[in-house]
Amino acid sequence: MFLAWNEIKKNKLRFALVIGVLFLVSYLVFFLTGLANGLANLNREAVDKWAGDGIMLTEDSDQSLPQSFLSIEDADSIDAETAVLGQLNTIVTSGDLKQGVAIFGIDENEFITPDVSEGELFSDENEVVAADFLQEEGFEIGDTLTLSSSDEELTIVGFTEDARFNAAPVLYASLETFQTVRFGEATEQNADQVNGIVIRADDLSALDAPEDLAIVDTQTFIENLPGYTEQKLTLDFMIYFLFIISATIVAIFLYVLTVQKINMFGVMKAQGISNGYLARSVVAQTFILAAVGVVTGYVLTLVTGLFLPNAVPVQFDGVAMAIYGVVLIAVAILGAIFSVLTIVRIDPLKAIGA
Amino acid sequence: MTVLELKQAKKTFGTGHKKVEALKETNFQAQAGEMIAIIGPSGSGKSTFLTIAGGLQTPSEGDVVINGTSLAKLNEKKLSKVRLNEIGFILQASNLVPFLTVHNQMMLLKKVKKDTLNDQELEELYKDLGIEELRNKYPSDLSGGERQRVAIAKALYTNPSIVLADEPTASLDSERAYEVMELLQKETKSKQTTTLVVTHDTRLIDYCDRVFKMTDGTLREEDHTPKEGTAHE
Ligand SMILES: Nc1ncnc2c1ncn2[C@@H]1O[C@H](COP(=O)(O)OP(=O)(O)OP(=O)(O)O)[C@@H](O)[C@H]1O
Ligand SMILES: [Mg+2]
């Protein structure tokens, strides 16, 4: 530590730059991981929010919610907690504001009903609770929304957090409102129609679905959201490659850093300072540099997250970031250990030029 | 007491017609409290002799014995220990760590070796070498001569039983050179160390008890009567 620390103290600028490089690399890894996470999350936020274990859909629907049509009564045959869900996609307009949304028709006594972060829950016809994303876009409580697919008008009475489905912000409404929007004139005949029935049960396989219906677990349902799996795979690969390449760069960088000092190590070896002492010093120094760089990257990533507009889909997973951070530090130390092998091989005689 | 002994030590570099016999078969003994000068022309093998004696390189044939320990049997790790514990090097090229202050050069040695000079002895050493004002400076801020004196302090700080000096006065003016020789002589006598000094400057041999001349890898003792006290006033 004595050597490691004194060297850093003497060459402050040089080591500040080294830490800067390590910081930038970890910042890049952390930030892009956050973006990839956020992007993947856009699709599933609302599904995570309703916290169901599975969902019942028609067999013909190919596990796609909009393609599935079933009756509210189908819930009665399920021996578990259920919540009905009607869903349709449309475009809402309020003044100059225009936004594609997903409307969820729900029973307010069932568990899909969201926590309202501002305003109140819908209680009357054509009232909706909107994803707070709309709020950031400029929509306000009391705004009247006209729809592209219906003559009905909706009114925002409240906002709720983190509610996007397949990247579209969700408007939660009563089943009645949903039916009106969806079927217009034909609302009466279709009053019991929904798209799916969300189920909470510890053991889904113990449940029997009525004929022509199938129970899908939540994970499978999410993976079958349009584009979700393909997008996730692409992002995951990007992150893995980024990570492997960054880690390699860090290892090579720290190796080169030590190899540059070979002569000096030779001088110390000539005096009888052991390989072990020099090796410990190099590893300790690398640890200091890598830890400071990665921790700075970690903190600044989170700070940057706070200042980003909400439209940027970024979601930081602290635990995953910590793991990436630890691996980056470990890889840096690995690079240092490689350079230690070089130190061991130095002939002190060559270094002193006798 | 014999502190340092070379037994039929020989060093050759290269093979075939490129073969250089840097050190021909050499037998050599040095006692505690002896100050020995090694003189000879450039390229004659003085540095080769000195680094073999100090365990920095192994002889092609023969053995080196330091305080009863035969170096031939030692691995690099043990050899490094011998260098740390028994030998103080003052080398032709300055051997200072660039990012440590003069004082921290000493402190580094204190970290790795238990038995060093105490604080008061270190102060005296600084004074004797005229570097007490330099203790917080880095090597890059010192003159060549100052660096050389710090290197001497470093060699003596670890309380070695053998001091090996390769041209220790090369970058000093003659006044400083005499002072350094005087200091080495004083240390040799008071601590009963064995000191080998390689030098071109024949005026400096007056400080030594014995003088050897190296010619083409052959070491031969010269007639020499050490002068009483300090040779130069
Ligand atoms: N590593 C080596 N490989 C090949 N030849 C070497 C090596 N080291 C020294 N020699 C040769 O051995 C001979 C003795 O070299 P050495 O350095 O001992 O001379 P020296 O007496 O110290 O000279 P100087 O007074 O110039 O320092 C020289 O001819 C040199 O070229
Ligand atoms: Mg030489």
TrEMBL record, chain A:
Segments forming domain ABC3 transporter permease C-terminal: 237-348
Source organism, top-level taxon: Bacteria
Keywords of this entry: Cell membrane, Membrane, Transmembrane, Transmembrane helix, Transport
Location of the protein in the cell: Cell membrane
Listed InterPro entries: ABC-4/HrtB_transporter, ABC3_permease_C
Transmembrane region(s): 15-36, 237-257, 277-301, 321-344
Membrane topology reported for the UniProt record: Multi-pass membrane protein
CC terms in the record's Gene Ontology section: plasma membrane
Family per similarity comment: Belongs to the ABC-4 integral membrane protein family. HrtB subfamily.
Record note on quaternary structure: The complex is composed of two ATP-binding proteins (HrtA), two transmembrane proteins (HrtB) and a solute-binding protein.
Protein name: Putative hemin transport system permease protein HrtB
Source species: Chryseomicrobium excrementi
From TrEMBL, chain B:
GO cellular component: membrane protein complex; plasma membrane
Location of the ABC transporter domain: 4-231
Top-rank lineage group of the source organism: Bacteria
Signal peptide: none
Xref: PROSITE patterns: ABC_TRANSPORTER_1, ABC_TRANSPORTER_2
Gene Ontology MF terms in the entry: ATP binding; ATP hydrolysis activity; transmembrane transporter activity
Topology of this chain in the membrane: Peripheral membrane protein
One Pfam family it belongs to: ABC_tran
Keywords from the named record: ATP-binding, Cell membrane, Membrane, Nucleotide-binding, Transport
Compartment(s) where it occurs, according to its Swiss-Prot or TrEMBL record: Cell membrane
Keyword Hydrolase: no
SMART domains the UniProt entry points to: AAA (SM00382)
Annotated family: Belongs to the ABC transporter superfamily. HrtA family.
Its biological purpose: Part of the ABC transporter complex hrt involved in hemin import. Responsible for energy coupling to the transport system.
Assembly, per entry: The complex is composed of two ATP-binding proteins (HrtA), two transmembrane proteins (HrtB) and a solute-binding protein.
Protein name per the record: Putative hemin import ATP-binding protein HrtA
Organism of this sequence: Chryseomicrobium excrementi
